[in-house]
Amino acid sequence: MLNSSQQHRSFIIRTKWLLPVSSRPLENAWLRVERGLVTGFGTWPPRSQNGLRVIDQDNTIITTGFINAHTHLEFSSCQEPFNTAGGLHEWIRDVVAWKRQQSTSFVDSARNNAAIVSGIHESAACGVVALGEIATTNTFYNKIPNRPRLRVFREFLGFDSPASHAGLSREATCLGDAQRLSRAGIAVGLSPHAPYSTQWNVGKTVANASRKSLRRRGLRRGKNRTLTPLAMHLAESQFEAEFLTTQTGHFRTLFEDLGVWPDKTPNLATTADWISLLATSDRGLIIHGTHLHNDQVALSQLQLHRQKLIAVVCPRTTLALSGKLPPISEFKKSGIRICLGTDGRGSNPDLSIRAEAACLIESGLVTPQEALSMISVNGAWALGFEHRTGCIATGRPADFVILKPSVSPNTADQATMTIFDSMTKVVATFRGGRPIAGDFL
Ligand SMILES: [Zn+2]
Fold first, then answer.
1. Residue 71 Cα, ligand 1 centroid: separation in angstroms?
2. Phi, psi at residue 3, to the nearest 5°?
3. Which of 156, 69, 34 is closest to 378 using CA atoms?
4. 307 alpha carbon to ligand 1 midpoint, in Å?
5. How far is the CA of 343 from the centre of ligand 1 (A)?
6. Is residue 347 a contact partner of residue 84, using CB atoms and an 8 Å limit?
7. Is the domain defined by 11-65+391-438 classed in CATH 2.30.40.10?
8. Where are the domains positioned within the chain?
C-alpha cells in the first residue's frame, strides 16, 4: 500500500475498468503515474514496468476525479439541512437566523474553519478532486493540507454599501479578501450572490474587478491569462422575477422582516441583465437557473453567450426548495455547458456529487455518460481547471478515483452506470498522484 508520505508519487495501478473520459473505456487496464503525472495507460499488461511498483486493484473501476462546481462549505457542520418546505424565501430566514448566531468571536471563527475543513474532507471522501466554493469570509483555505483543488468565489451582496470597517465599503472589503486569497495561492473567483439580494451597481463593480484582474495578471505573467470567473445564483425562486420587477411579494416581506430593506429604493436588475453582465467576464457560472426556462429574454441571452457561460445545477437542493428538477432539457437546447454542484449542507443532506448525478440519471434527464462528463470535464471548465483536471490523459496531473462496485460490471456502459450506484464505494481519491482520501492515506 502507498501512504501519504510517499515521495515520488510513482506507481502502476491495475484495475478491472479504466474510464479516462478523455478516451474510450478500457477493460483489465493499467494506469502509470510518475512524479504525480499520468505517463500512460492501456490494456494490461504494460510493455514495461520501468521498475515501478504495481498496485493491483482488481475488481475496481478507476475514473477521473470528480468536480463539485458549487458548494458553501461553511454549512458543513449542519447535521441536517434547514427546513426547505416553505421555499427559498422561508429557507433564507432560517439561514440568516443561524448566521446571526455565529458571531465574529475567535471561537466562532474557529468553528467556521472547522466546518470548512470537515466539508473539504467529506468532499475528498466522495471522490472529489476540485471544488467551487462560495466564501463569505476571508478564511484559511490555503492552510488545509491534502485537499482537492479549490476555486474560491468571494461572495458579494447587499442593497447598499455602508462603510464596514476601516472606512472601506463592503465591496472593497470583499475584493481585499479575494486578493489575499489569491496571494496565498488559492484560485479565486467573484460571486455577486443573487439578483434579489445584490444591487446592480455592486454587480458592475464585481464584473469590472474580474476584467481588470484578467488584464493585470495577463501582463504580469506574460502568458495565458489567469481567469477570475464570476458565479451567481439565478432564477432560483418562482417569486424572484416578480420581486425584481415590482419589488413586492415574499422577498420584500422577508427583507423588511430581517431589517435589511433600505430606505432608498434599491436598483435591481433582471435575470437577463445579469446573464449579459456575467458574460463580460471570460467565464460565468449560472447557479441553479431553476425557473430560467420561463424567461424568454433571459434564455436568449443564455444562448447568445453560451460559449462563455455554464449552468451549474444542484438537483437535490432544487428539488427540495422548488419541488422540481433543474431545466436540463432547456439548457441542452440553448447549447450551454452543464455541470453539477452539491450546494451546501444547509440545503442538502451531504456533499456527494455522485448522488446529485444519480438524481438526474434516475429521472431520465441525462445518461450516465452525460452525467460523468458533467462531473468531470464540464466541471473542470467551470472552475477554469480544464488544463489540469477533469480527465485522465497522458501528461496531466494524476487526479483519479478508485471505486469498488458491489457487482462487477461486464461492459463499459455498465461500468459507467455503476459509478453512480449508491452501493459503489469510493476506495480512494488521488490528486496529482497523491491520496487525499481513502484506503491509501
Ligand atoms: Zn448556492
1. 6
2. -140, 170
3. 69
4. 22
5. 5
6. yes
7. yes
8. 11-65+391-438, 66-382
The residues facing 340 across adjacent strands are 313
**Are the C-beta atoms of 242 and 249 separated by less than 8 Å?**
yes
Q: What is the CATH number assigned to the segment(s) 66-382?
A: 3.20.20.140
Cβ atoms < 10 Å from Cβ of 428: 25
CA of 70 from ligand 1 middle (Å) equals: 6
In this prediction the pTM is 0.94
- With a CB cutoff of 8 Å and minimum separation 6, the contacts of 283 are 227, 229, 230, 308, 309, 310, 381, 382, 384
CA distances from 322 to 98, 104, 231, 318, 319 (A): 21, 32, 21, 6, 5
How confident is the prediction along the chain (441 residues), in pLDDT tens digits per residue? 555 445 569 999 999 999 999 999 999 999 999 999 999 999 999 998 889 999 999 899 999 999 999 999 999 999 999 999 999 999 999 999 988 887 655 567 788 889 999 999 999 999 999 999 999 887 789 999 999 999 999 999 888 655 444 556 778 888 888 888 998 999 999 999 999 999 999 999 999 988 887 555 544 444 445 789 999 999 999 999 999 999 999 999 999 999 999 988 899 999 999 999 999 998 999 999 999 999 999 999 999 999 999 999 999 999 999 999 999 999 999 999 999 999 999 999 999 999 999 999 999 999 999 999 999 999 999 999 999 999 999 999 999 999 999 999 999 999 999 999 999 999 999 999 999 999 887
| Residue 305, all three cell numbers | 453567450
234 CA distance to ligand 1 middle (Å): 10
Apex 248 CA angle, 244 and 249, nearest 5: 105
Protein residues with C-beta less than 5 angstroms from the ion ligand 1? 343
